[in-house]
Amino acid sequence: MQVSIEATSTLERRLTITIPAARIEADVEKQLKDAAKNVRIDGFRKGKVPSKIVKQRYGKGIRQDVLSDIIRTSFYEAVTQEKLNPAGTPSIEPKSDVEGQDFEFVATFEVFPEIALADFSAAEIEKQSAEVADADVDTMIETLRKQQASWNDVERAAEDGDRVTMDFEGFVDGEAFDGGKAEGYELVLGSNTMIPGFESGLLGAKAGDDVELNVAFPEEYHAENLKGKPAVFKVKVTAVAEPVLPELNAEFFSKFGVEEQSEEGFRAEIRKNMERELKNALRNKTKTLVLDALCRLNPIAIPAALISDEVDTLRRQAVQQFGGDVAKFDLNMLPAELFKDQAEQRVRNGLLLAEVIRVNEIKADEARVGAFVEEMSAAYQQPEEVKAYFLNDKQQRRQIEAVIVEDVAVETLLAAAKVNEVNVSYEEAIKPAASKNADA
């Protein structure tokens, strides 16, 4: 087997592989002999069909099978010989295929980038820290009460926090537009679910009032034909209702899976959940900042094949998120451009983090696996059953180990960086960090 290699770009490689005719013919002859033992042709006993007839009938198909197998095995032999690390499936193009002559084909593919990690001590990380204060618990409980509120109709003017039921129709340039009409629509004032000016324009309205709202659609509005356009909404208020918050009692507590009978016990359970959420939020924020710094210090080329694969993964996740059946959904209906930046960022993060893990020989030890599962299962009502499931299910355990290995890699990088700790509020801490490398 002869192999020649050409670098057509930073990551793309073009292998020209030549297979001696003798190797092909030997494999074809062996396949023909095996076939002759089993084929049935009228006028001949099984196993007694002349090889010439077997070749006439099956030779072409057998040769194609042999070539397919040789292409697969010789490609693997070639990349091993040349010490290449392919990323994605190669594009195969036969160059010459004449019986009795050497067979030549070209394999074009991308390779994984070679990564020489920069010194991470040059990175500066602003690491947030926070605590759950009593006031944060109060705010959370109040939010939960509002979520479970009942509504009483009132005859007074609508106030912030009231629910307004209405019929409305919107007009742009004097013309009604699609999606701008509704009947019996319920809106909680102050929820900020409508465009700016809509909710504030209903403050002071009473049941039976007709209100005309002059507003403008935001420049970043999702409907292209409405972006930045001034609009008039004609509203008929049919009812105004005020919220009635539930009492803090056992019935209310049980709605959140809390068996505590006392308010003190409920508050303790809420605090515990908030502290768990806070810990995860801070860990994820720190990870995002570390990965951003890692990417800035290590600019690398990324194989297009890996980005394409990741785009498909994100497409599947999007379909599942909205309750779709991935098996029945044509993923190409979702434009690749919607996911390309995120896919590229995830691939870049993955490649660099994998190199950190390899260089530092990081593995998931049993103690961390146990602690991770213990913490995760504490959020469930039957923690022992959940713990047993995660520890004994091979796939779940592998996923947990992968998370731990990444966490240790981030901790390793963080230990090498210049870290500035900043204390923030609980509300600030649980806001997700936006990556600065989305367009990198």
Automatic annotation (TrEMBL):
Its subcellular locations are: Cytoplasm
Matches recorded under Gene3D superfamilies: 3.10.50.40, Trigger factor ribosome-binding domain, Trigger factor, C-terminal domain
Q: Which Pfam families match?
A: FKBP_C, Trigger_C, Trigger_N
User: According to the lineage, what is the superkingdom?
Assistant: Bacteria
- What EC number is given for this enzyme? 5.2.1.8
Domain PPIase FKBP-type per the UniProt entry, residue ranges: 161-249
Keywords of the record: Cell cycle, Cell division, Chaperone, Cytoplasm, Isomerase, Rotamase
Q: Which reaction does it catalyse?
A: [protein]-peptidylproline (omega=180) = [protein]-peptidylproline (omega=0)
* SUPFAM superfamilies noted in UniProt: FKBP-like, Triger factor/SurA peptide-binding domain-like, Trigger factor ribosome-binding domain
Q: Which PANTHER family match?
A: TRIGGER FACTOR CHAPERONE AND PEPTIDYL-PROLYL CIS/TRANS ISOMERASE, TRIGGER FACTOR-LIKE PROTEIN TIG, CHLOROPLASTIC
The family line of this record is: Belongs to the FKBP-type PPIase family. Tig subfamily.
**NCBIfam families tied to this protein:** tig (TIGR00115)
Supply the domain comment. Consists of 3 domains; the N-terminus binds the ribosome, the middle domain has PPIase activity, while the C-terminus has intrinsic chaperone activity on its own.
What job does the chain carry out?
Involved in protein export. Acts as a chaperone by maintaining the newly synthesized protein in an open conformation. Functions as a peptidyl-prolyl cis-trans isomerase.
Give the protein's recorded name.
Answer: Trigger factor
Instruction: Write down the species.
Output: Pokkaliibacter plantistimulans
- Give the classification, highest ranks: Bacteria, Pseudomonadati, Pseudomonadota, Gammaproteobacteria, Oceanospirillales
